[in-house]
Design brief:
eight-stranded antiparallel beta sheet
């Protein structure tokens, strides 16, 4: 083989090696950009955190541990949680009848009281004496005795809660607080703060259907988040939205319910009657910047019904909603389709 031919062969080999190196680098980059996620059962639901721009699994562990911390703090059923101990009079109490709370619990109760005021009591965090009578989680729920419901009603009034800083007092013996309607949103926001502190800029936090998008996809495109079709499999959607750096929270009668004597009883209880709301709605989905707002507003708007709920949403800045009525019609808030892109 002459010198010229040898050079040609070497050139071909060199080109092959260069192309192989580029292919390996590209493959590694593709592998590096694949999202990672972890799932756990917390807050009485399935919690999943997915990172799109990081391969650091310790960040996932930290996010789930943070969720676990708040679950242990705010659970109404865990006997060691601060909320359980408050409801059962086990916290230290001063001579004025005030209990001392942690700053976290006091902050969340304060947010809850703001939604009580916004709804004029249609949403009421003082509903614990009633909600504890109903069982929507075991699969063996039955309608509570009417006399027990009647006895609980006088104890449900957020105006009988006095909150001064981290100090709280109930004006009636037997009162209690249930934060289930806003706790998941509050916790999701805290998890987002943690991810941002760890340098994550693209992620999804899913707390059993409470979805909080951190930023957007690494390529700059939005996430696609679905509004679940009521009573259908979670993969079946009524609408799909393109979402970046916002929260999507739904409240609906299909989430926790049971049937008795041909009647469906769901978990969104009317504090005035003691029974589930009956107002022609099956779900309300809120799109907002903070998940705690989406959580509080989804329950508040469901309680208010379609007309008053839509009126409330339309009066608030940077908040959008989708209401689904019993006939499975979708009702969008003002300028929804100008602000939120519905995927085709």
């Amino acid at each position: 083989m002459n010198t010229k031919s040898k050079r040609a062969v070497l050139a071909v080999i060199l080109l092959f090696l260069v192309l192989l190196a580029f292919a390996l680098v590209y493959q590694n980059r593709e592998r590096e950009t694949e999202p990672i996620s972890k799932t756990d059962y917390l807050l009485n639901t399935i919690v999943t955190v997915t990172l799109y721009d990081s391969q650091d699994e310790s960040i996932l562990d930290g996010a789930l541990e943070l969720c676990r911390k708040y679950d242990n703090l705010l659970s109404p059923t865990t006997e060691t949680s601060e909320l359980y101990r408050l409801n059962h009079g086990e916290l230290s109490q001063d001579e004025e009848g005030f209990y001392e709370l942690s700053e976290e619990t006091a902050n969340l109760i304060s947010r809850g009281l703001s939604y009580c005021q916004l709804s004029q009591g249609a949403f009421d965090i003082a509903i614990e004496p009633l909600s504890s009578l109903w069982d929507f989680t075991s699969g063996e729920g039955t309608v509570p005795d009417s006399s027990a419901i009647k006895a609980a009603l006088p104890l449900i009034n957020y105006e009988d809660i006095t909150l001064e800083g981290n100090r709280i007092r109930f004006e009636k013996e037997g009162m209690g607080i249930n934060l289930g309607a806003i706790a998941k949103g509050y916790i999701a926001d805290k998890m987002k703060d943690y991810l941002l502190e760890e340098g994550v800029e693209s992620a999804i936090i899913d707390l059993g259907g409470n979805v909080l998008c951190v930023g957007q996809r690494p390529d700059g495109s939005p996430f696609r988040i679905g509004v679940q079709m009521p009573f259908a499999d979670r993969s079946e959607t009524a609408a799909v939205m393109e979402i970046s750096d916002k929260s999507v929270v739904s409240s609906g009668i299909y989430e926790r319910y049971f049937e008795q004597d041909g009647v469906l009883y769901h978990h969104i209880l009317n504090p005035s009657t003691g029974y589930p709301y009956e107002n022609n709605l099956v779900s309300v989905t809120i799109i907002s910047d903070e998940s705690v707002d989406g959580d509080g507003l989804s329950t508040t708007c469901f309680a208010l019904g379609l007309d008053k709920g839509m009126e409330l949403i339309n009066s608030l800045p940077d908040v959008h909603a989708v209401f689904i009525t019993e006939d499975y019609q979708l009702h969008y808030s003002e300028d929804f389709e100008k602000e939120i892109t519905l995927a085709k």
